[in-house]
Design brief:
It is a single chain. By secondary structure, the protein is of the alpha+beta class. The chain has a single domain, classed as Endonuclease, Chain A. The protein contains five helices and four strands; from the N terminus they run ααβββαβαα. The protein has a four-stranded mixed β-sheet, with helices on both faces. The chain is globular.
Length: 127
């Protein structure tokens, strides 16, 4: 069911999600592979760079309501406990300051230690 909903959401992205996606998908050549509407931890994440454990969420006006705000805090806590960092941006931030939003995302990615590849042996602890 999550995959069906994710497909629907990818086909019906908001104007702000499209605006952000146009840029994020070009970052693949820099090693930052983002997925749209990625199912994780029981949620559909607007954008996720799984290698760097970064989630970018785009919030519209409905997210300001108390009930939705509480849901977002619980969701963010669960994702943080699973090892993700969550960045949230309002639609108007994307409309009015796209460059600043992109800079914040890029900074978060570059501040992340380079992920260890699966084939790398674990650190031995002996030096």
């Amino acid at each position: 069911m999550a995959n069906k909903q994710a497909r629907y959401l990818r086909q019906h992205m908001t104007r702000q999600e499209v605006k952000l996606w146009v840029h994020l998908k070009t970052w693949r050549s820099d090693g930052f592979h983002f997925r749209r509407q990625a199912p994780r931890e029981g949620y559909l994440l607007d954008f996720a760079c799984l290698k760097y454990r970064l989630i970018v969420d785009v919030d519209g006006g409905g997210h300001g309501h108390r009930c939705q705000s509480l849901h977002n805090r619980k969701r963010d806590a669960r994702l943080t406990n699973a090892g993700f960092r969550v960045l949230r941006f309002w639609n108007n931030e994307i409309d009015q300051n796209l460059a600043g939003v992109l800079d914040a995302i890029r900074t978060a990615l570059e501040d992340t230690p380079t992920p260890r590849l699966r084939r790398d042996p674990p650190p031995s602890g002996e030096g």
